[in-house]
Design a protein that fits this description.
- This protein has 1 helix and 41 strands.
- With 528 residues, the chain is mostly beta strands.
- It has 4 domains: 161 residues, Jelly Rolls (Sandwich); 101 residues, Immunoglobulin-like (Sandwich), CATH 2.60.40.10; 164 residues, Jelly Rolls; 83 residues, Macroglobulin (MG2) domain (Immunoglobulin-like).
- A hairpin with a 2-residue loop joins strand 17 and strand 18.
């Protein structure tokens, strides 16, 4: 049992001291900062004092840039920081601005032009997540459109180095076309460093374990890849990942389906290279009297924006200041036939600059008898307005008959124009059915619920086979405070209650081992 004591003891290191962060290291590495959202926070030379501060990332309408940290307060304390904001002025409501949260509860917010100023807020005892989020609404850019923070003090806060097993954040590339190589990519979060990252791949009843290649690292996040090769016929399989950190904590992930499938069936591809609206396409004014659809060589604004594909694009112009002038571009009916696959529409969309209204938009419609049904609406305030954006629309429920007719409704409200290019209608095939005999269950230790708890919580786990099982609870010194399970169990799912009635409030850990091998460990918090 000594092995388990050492393992759990190393999982958390707590430094009992007030923490300060002035970003003078020139990076975000001195503490376990996590930056996420649509853009990461960066180090900037506009500081409260000293040289550096932290600045929100470059974002656009309907986006956010977040910076957070998790700390432990053994006693009640405070958090103090200085902030600066430059954005759209606000009245009774904040449109764009800096928002400060503790445990996802909004504590304060600022919108407009504010120079450096210091703020202090109380913090209760316990583990807390502090988050600064710069958020933009659907329109308008003012000032530098960002926020800064500097000189942060966490009074009575202490560093919580969480060294649990590596966490799988995302998986990509699980589908490939036949005769093309499948490149699997994964993103992992890990505090102490990775020892090995492997993938267990099962295809056609054969299982192979491969070592994945380290691609990149950003703070606590790692990216790995593996080339699984190609198949000349539709093929399916499964993959799971085995993640091990430098403290020998192992995470055996869930299974993911993988597959090589046939090329899509394309019914229509149109890039408007003929220089005019294609034959059989019609325009219908549904409201107002102004506006038009035309084929052009570039977007109207900014001048010189080129088509996404080839030398032409199609533009819906809403006549500048005219609102309520909507025109539908109607495609001819297209034979899509009935097949066991997904019917989709894809197109590139570019919104010209100068629009300050939210409801300038494009609506994808489908004709049903004499009626046009709205399928999906695309507003211009999504992502970088200076770039083409690829959109896909699922038409499965509308492609049940042998043909489909699609309409593109340009809707105006004091805007400029919408530009489309490379429009396609196609069917995309599913991965072939998975042979259930290939599926291999895995061990799983779940987070306790509730957490925090007082005094009873439930621990759940899953076994992929029979074995000698040990489920024990430890304190931060690595000492066992309770062995909940120590017996031979059959494969299956289990839930057991843990009662902390006679324990002090604080952080505890629980570890699951099967046949002498630790397969998972997690932390929980007892609050009385």
């Amino acid at each position: 049992m000594r092995f388990y004591l050492i393992l759990i003891f190393l999982m958390v290191t707590i430094v009992n001291a007030t923490i300060t962060e002035d970003f003078e290291s020139g990076d975000l590495l001195s503490l376990n900062w996590e930056s996420y959202g649509n853009a990461d926070w960066v180090i900037d030379e506009n500081s409260n004092q000293g040289i550096y501060s932290a600045k929100s990332g470059v974002i656009y309408d309907n986006q956010n840039s977040d910076l957070s940290i998790e700390l432990n307060y053994e006693d009640a304390g405070e958090v103090t920081f200085s902030r600066k904001v430059s954005c759209e002025p606000s009245g009774a409501s904040i449109y764009d601005g800096l928002f400060f949260y503790i445990d996802d509860i909004e504590i304060d917010k600022w919108g407009g032009e504010f120079d450096w100023e210091e703020f202090t807020y109380p913090v209760e005892a316990g583990i807390h997540t502090f988050k600064w989020s710069y958020i933009k609404d659907y329109s308008t850019q003012n000032g530098e459109d960002c926020a800064w923070i500097d000189d942060i003090t966490f009074t009575n806060g202490s560093i919580l180095e969480d060294n649990e097993a590596p966490e799988l954040i995302s998986v990509s590339g699980v589908e490939a076309l036949i005769n093309e190589n499948m490149i699997i990519g994964i993103k992992i979060r890990e505090a102490t460093g990775l020892e090995s990252v492997k993938a267990e791949v099962t295809v056609n009843g054969t299982t192979e374990t491969i070592t994945m290649n380290d691609v990149s690292k950003s703070r606590r996040f790692y990216n790995f890849e593996a080339d699984l090769g190609s198949y000349s016929t539709p093929t399916a399989g499964t993959i799971k990942f085995i993640l091990e950190d430098q403290l020998n904590h192992i995470n055996m992930t869930d299974l993911y389906n993988i597959g090589w499938f046939p090329y899509p069936v394309v019914y229509l591809t149109e890039s408007f290279e003929g220089g005019e609206i294609p034959n059989g396409w019609n325009t219908v004014q549904t409201s107002g009297t102004l506006g038009e659809w035309t084929v052009e060589s570039e977007a109207l604004s900014p001048s010189g924006t080129l088509p996404q594909d080839g030398e032409k694009l199609i533009r819906y112009s809403s006549a500048f200041t005219a609102s309520g002038n909507d025109i539908r571009l109607e495609l001819p009916p297209i034979d899509v036939s009935k097949e066991d696959s997904h019917l989709k529409l894809s197109f590139y969309l570019f919104h010209s600059l100068g629009n300050t209204w939210a409801n300038d938009s494009l609506i994808v419609q489908v004709k049903d008898g004499s009626d046009w049904i709205d399928v999906e609406r695309f507003y211009r305030f999504t992502g970088d307005p200076n770039e083409w954006h690829l959109h896909e629309v699922d038409l499965d429920q509308y492609g049940k008959e042998n043909s489909i007719q699609i309409g593109l409704l340009g809707c105006s409200a004091n805007g400029r124009d919408l530009n489309l290019d490379k429009l396609q209608i196609f069917r995309e095939f599913d991965i072939v059915d998975i042979d259930e005999s290939q599926l291999i269950e895995n061990y799983r230790l779940y987070q306790n619920y509730p957490n925090p708890f007082n005094p009873i919580t439930t621990l759940s786990f899953k076994l992929d086979k029979d074995g000698e099982v040990d489920l024990s609870v430890y304190n931060t010194k690595g000492e066992i405070v309770k062995t909940i399970v120590n017996s031979h169990l059959s494969l299956g799912s289990y839930s057991v209650d843990f009662n902390g009635l006679y324990l002090n409030s604080g952080i505890y850990f629980y570890s699951l081992s099967v046949d002498g091998k630790v397969v998972g460990a997690k932390k929980m918090v007892l609050v009385k």
